[in-house]
Structure formats: C-alpha cells, structure tokens
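I am sending you the entry underneath: sequence plus fold tokens. Let me know what the token row says about the fold:
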Amino acid sequence: MTLRRFVSIAAGALLLVASAQAQDWPQRPVRVVVPFGAGSSPDILARIVNDRLAQRLGQPVIVENKPGAGGNAGTDLVAKAAPDGQTFLLSVNAPLVYNTVLYRNLPYDPFRDLVPVSLAATTPNVCAANAQLGIDSVKGWLDALRRNPGKYNFASTGNGSISHLGVELIKARTQSFAVHIPYASSAQAVTALVQGDVQFACLPPVTVMPQVKAGRLKALGVTSAERSALLPDLPTLRESGLPDIQAVPWFAYMAPKGTPQPVVDRMSREIAAVLAEPETRQKLLTAYFDPVGSTPPQLAAFMREELQRWKPVIERAGLKPD
C-alpha cells in the first residue's frame, strides 16, 4: 500500500469515527451561556429555542446567565471553556464583533478563541421615550436633544452594545448630546426608562413593546434599514431624516475553539431545524425575533462583514466605551 493511499484511508476512517461521535453526542446536559441577565432579549431567545433543541438532542439544554462587562464576561467564560462539546454561547453584536474595535484589552478574541455555530435571529431596535416626556415622533425627539444638550439620559444594554453605538451615531449625526447610562440587560434598561431614571433608549422590542402597549413608553421608530414586518407601523430612522443610521441587533451561537467540528456542525443543523419549525418560528415572531439559521461558514463570513462595516464607523465617530 502506498503512503498516499494509507493516509487517505486513515483520514476517511477518522472522519467516520468523528461523524459517529457527533451522532452519539451529547451524553450529558449541554449548557448555553447567555452573557446577559434573565429577561434580556438573548435570554428570551435562548429559552424559546433551547426547549425544542433539548428534545432534538435527547439531553437537557441549560441556559446559564453570566452577565457583566456588557456581555464580555460571559463571552470570555465560554472562550476559555473546555472544547468538549458541552458548552456553547448565545451572544450578540458587541461581544462578538464591535468590542474588538472598542476595547484595547479585550480578554478574548472572538475570531480566534471562538468558533461560529449558527446565526440565530435578528431584531430591530425600537427607539422609545418615557411617555411623560410628551415626545411622539423621531423629529420631536431629535429637536428636544438639540435644544437641551446634556438634559437627557439614555439607556443601553452595555458599553459597546448596538443600543449604545446606535444612539452615539445619532448624537454624532445630529450634533446633540445626552448622557449614556449602561445597564446589564435590556430588561433593566427598560425598567429604568419606565421609572424615569433615563428618558429614552433604542432597545429590543421584546422588552420595549409591552411597556409601549401599557402606555408607559412611546415608540418613535426602528433602527433597521427598512420597516420591520414585525412592527410595520413604526417608521425607520431613515424615513425620519437620518438616512445613514442602521443598527440592528443579531444573535449567534458560538463554541469554544477546538470543539470537534462534527459536533459544531450537528449543533448548527439542529438549531436551524428548530428555527424552521412552524411552532418555534411563531413563538419567535411573537417575541419580535426574525429567525435566521445559518451554517458555521455563513456565520463566520457574516461576522467578518460586520467588522468591516462597523470598524470604520466606530473609528470615524471616535466612539469609546464609557
């Protein structure tokens, strides 16, 4: 037998073994770390998806909330976890892309220390104001900011989050000023907005819209490029005089670098299958998530595109974590 043929047969045998291992995986509960608090938008998404994911995998899929440092703490935890196929991450834009530009000493590199699994969903942020302000449009909001520099506070889900960067870009484009107050989750940020600790914010609709329907908040517009099918009555910021503002949250599953590729591939397939189920899809749409599903290479390409799109924007605007 020639050496080349021996290597080819050996490689094929290893592939068959790895594929068999992936089919036998998992043998014990799988944890999905969410680097934000309970009630946050990624936490809600994880709990909707993981219920069905557990049934497909034949093992419990446990959500572990590890908030802190704008999502960096929990993301770093997974980046340093054992790559044994038992730990995954459901994180968002900033810890996975933007913070590589914003932070000088990020304790992990998402492009080096994590491997993509699947892009799970997107959602438009809703810009909303405390109802007692009497502001009922994007124009009225921007006029108030310009007339009263420094009078208003705005909430975000953490330094470098899309809810932070989106408003910072609005401030830069309109030459206005408001004080940034970061919170550990969208649920906490919305609570502060309702209580009047902050006056406005651009946050995920899953936490904003219940308060809008209750009359405590006024929804002004969405940060997506086009009107969202989830919120068709809300204008985009582009329609409202800010043509170059587009800041959309997205949610992605990742794994520690070194996780066996057959396990990553199977997890990706199972997530996509769950997202395609009519019942799960309806639950996600009701919670204002637009389910996506992707292969690992598609998510890797998407993250690189996001870095290329946002890095010059962040640098040009001089945005820094508070």
Remarks:
- The radius of gyration is 21 Å.
